[in-house]
Every structure is written in C-alpha cells, then in structure tokens.
Design a protein that fits this description.
Radius of gyration: 21 Å
Number of strands: 11
Order of helices and strands: EHHEHEHEHEEHEHHHEEEHEH
Structural class: alpha+beta
Oligomer: single chain
Largest sheet: 9 strands, antiparallel
Length: 432
C-alpha cells in the first residue's frame, strides 16, 4: 500500500493511507455519442448488428444521455480496460472455478462468450441473449470488464507449461488473516462502472454466461465517490477519511509501461502475456472503531500526511515531495520513522511501484456493532514479486498502519493484454 504518484487527469485509488485523484471530468474521455458517430469511418466494431444496437441509443427526439451515462471505455486495445481508466463509482470483483471435467476447450468457449458480452455491454448494448433489462435506458456509464487467470487455471486446463513464474503463490504476511474460500480462483473478473445498475447488469450477465463451465468461487462489491460529487476535481478519500493515492505512478512517466505492463518482447514471461499485467487483489478490513478513537494528529502521524489536504507532514501541498530528513524543534523526525507513506515510498523500496485502483467496501455491521468495511485493494504491476511483494514485506516490518488493518482475502491473477479486433481475451493462450 505504497505512496506513489497520480496517473494523468484521472487517477486511481490506493490502499489505506495514500491519496488518489478523481481528476477526470466525465467528458474528458471519448463520449459514447462521438464514438458512435465516428464508428463507420474508423472501422470500430461496437457489437453485433440487430435490434440490440438501439439498446442505449435514444430514439429520435428523446432527451440525450447525461455526460455520466454517455462515457464509454474501449474493449479492444493494447491493454485490457479497467487498468488505467479513472476511478469508477461502483465495482464488483468475482472469481470463478472451472467445473469438474471442464477442459481447455470449455475454457476457450467461455472466454469467447465473456469477451463478446464485455464488448456489447461496454458499448451500451443489451446482452446477446436473454437480457434482463436492468441497464435499459442507461448508457455505457464508463463500464469496464477485465479478465484474468489464477495459478490453478493452468493445471485445470493442461496448460502448465504456459503458466508464468510470476503467478507463484504470494508469501505469507504478518497482517494476513486470510479466508481461503474468498481467495484465489481459476478465473477472475473485475467489473467497474459509474452507475450501480450498469455494474450489476454486467455482473449478472457474466455470471449467466458462465453456464455449466464455471461456478462462482467468491464475489465482492465495492464503491468509490461518484465523479462530479465534489465542487472541484480533487483526490478521493478512503473510509479512514484520508486522501488516497497521491503518488500513484503516472501514465505520462517514461517508465510507466515498464513498471505496469509486461513488454511485448525481451520478457521472461510467456508470449501470451505481452502487454498484460498482474493484478494483486486483497480484501483489507479497516478496524475503524480503533482508528476513529485516534486524534486527527495521531492519525496523521500513522500515515505521514495531513488529513485535510494530503500534504506530507514535512510541509508544502499534496504533491510536494516528502522531506524524510526534516526534524522538529526537539530533533524528532517530522514524518515518523514508521509512517505508512514513508515506508511505502518507491525510493524506500528499490523503486518498486504498482498502480493501485481499488474500491472501498462495506458489508454490514456485526452484532457487536463493528463495521465490516475497508478496501478492495487491486494493484497492477509487470512483476508482482518486484511490485506488491517487495512493498508489502517492507510494510510488514514496521508500518504504523498495520495496527488498524487486516488482510482477510487474497488473490493473484495474470491479466493478458487486450484483445485485438476479432479476438477474444486470452485467445493467444488458449489457442496458441
């Protein structure tokens, strides 16, 4: 849960204690109307022809979609959607296990169905069959659907020789209290959108598409602040009230792709992972009752940043570089030696970096009044051993925040590169 910098105008959130920006205006991406208007000229395929094409398109004379609903992410591309896009208001994470006896053939058919569904729904169209109408009247709403493979997928499908070394199981950490039933899985799907019904519709359709080939292993629901909810563009807050993600890596940085995506050549990863990434997924419970007993000053010392504006305790504004050597009048370090933001910094971890894009969650209140709430932590990196594992090991050895969080579920997934026109996600693995 490191202290890194923001990607572009729209940023991604981070684990507790770091600041993430919601800087993207809903109109900054490619709008649905503009995309539909240029589809013929560019050759962009938005989905199968037929009655379903009009699912999200307003009839003549109807009120046009609002900016929130019209925003549309691209399905086809160099990378899968749902990695570098900005924060989405609603998210679902779901893992599947292949059914007993399901083979590589059934897995390929499933990924083909899922890819077709993702392309249609992300374009604001209805599902190809038996659509539930849950998302009728809504536009794409920045929907993204992302697919990944777990360690166990490769033995289940006879593809052990294609399993990346980077998918070796994560080591144990001192803050782990992991529920195995809610960890790992053969297949992983990440769904995000700026409308709750659009996100649920995608989740339900993906589940139905699985049919008899796979069954849900676990599923988690999350949320973020809705774009436009604040008076001006600003970094989002997590459930601890902290600005979250100030120092996420920026796509504009020269080494961004090297840190986040597997290169197309010169990598030790198998060829099918070119332009892909590795997602570490952690359900991190925040012990909010204990956290909220701390004074604001004590909370700031745990994190190393001001709660009001995300600025480092060493001074300046939110993006001012942290001065790790600055001391107060008594000679004590202004940023405590065990502050989360100090320990998680890339320059304190050999340059290790990850792109964090999580969701907050709240799963109810226990009989004793304790909230089951926290972070659905999702981070992306080209190498999880150099990224997440390096930083988490450092945090394990003395992060002040560890007292107030508990890692309750975990997963590691290989997320292949984006599907080209005419391809489905994972085709180069399953048909290579």
């Amino acid at each position: 849960m490191p202290d890194q910098s923001i990607p572009e105008a729209r940023t991604v959130e981070a684990p507790p204690g770091e600041a993430v920006s919601e800087n993207a205006s809903p109109r900054e991406g490619i709008s649905r109307r503009r995309l539909l208007g240029t589809a013929g000229a560019t050759g962009l395929v938005l989905g199968a022809a037929g009655g379903a094409v009009g699912y999200a398109a307003a009839p003549a004379g109807a009120t046009p979609l609002t900016s929130l609903g019209e925003d549309m992410a691209m399905f086809h591309g160099k990378h899968q959607p749902g990695i570098t896009e900005g924060l989405q208001a609603r998210g679902h994470l779901v893992a599947f296990d292949l059914a007993a006896g399901a083979s590589r053939k059934e897995a390929a058919a499933l990924l083909r169905r899922w890819s077709t569904t993702a392309q249609r729904l992300m374009a604001g169209e209805a599902a190809a069959q038996d659509d539930t109408d849950v998302a009728r009247d809504a536009g794409p709403s920045s929907l993204t659907i992302t697919f990944g493979f777990g360690n166990s997928f490769f033995s289940r499908t006879g593809l052990e020789k294609q399993r990346p070394v980077s998918l070796d199981p994560l080591p144990d950490f001192s803050s782990d209290h992991l529920d195995k039933a809610r960890s790992n899985g053969d297949l992983w799907v990440q769904i995000g959108a700026n409308d709750a019904l659009v996100a649920f519709h995608a989740l339900r359709t993906i589940q139905k598409d699985a049919g008899s080939a796979a069954k849900v292993r676990w599923q988690m629901n999350g949320f973020n602040r809705t774009p436009g909810a604040t008076a001006h563009k600003m970094t989002a807050r997590n459930l601890m009230g902290q600005l979250d993600g100030t120092r996420n890596p920026k796509p504009a940085e020269s080494d961004f792709d090297k840190r986040i995506f597997v290169p197309a050549s010169g990598s030790t990863d198998p060829a099918w992972m070119a332009n892909g990434s590795y997602a570490v997924v952690r359900r991190i419970r925040m012990l909010l009752d204990d956290w909220e007993k701390l004074s604001t000053g004590a909370q700031e010392n745990v994190i190393g940043r001001r709660k009001s504006n995300g600025a480092a305790l060493s001074g300046g504004g939110e993006t001012t570089a942290m001065d790790l050597e600055k001391t107060d009048a008594k000679g004590a370090l202004v940023v405590p030696i065990n502050a989360h933001a100090r320990i998680a910094r890339p320059d304190q971890n050999g340059g290790a970096a990850m792109l964090r894009r999580p969701f907050s969650y709240h799963d109810g209140i226990a009989a004793d009044g304790t909230p089951d709430a926290g972070l659905l932590f999702v981070c992306w990196q080209a190498d999880p051993l150099r990224g997440f594992v390096t930083v988490q090991r450092k945090l394990d050895r003395g992060d002040a925040l560890s007292t107030y969080i508990r890692h309750e579920a975990s997963g590691l997934f290989a997320v292949p590169g984006g599907a080209a026109e005419g391809e489905y996600v994972g085709q180069r693995l399953l048909e290579g």
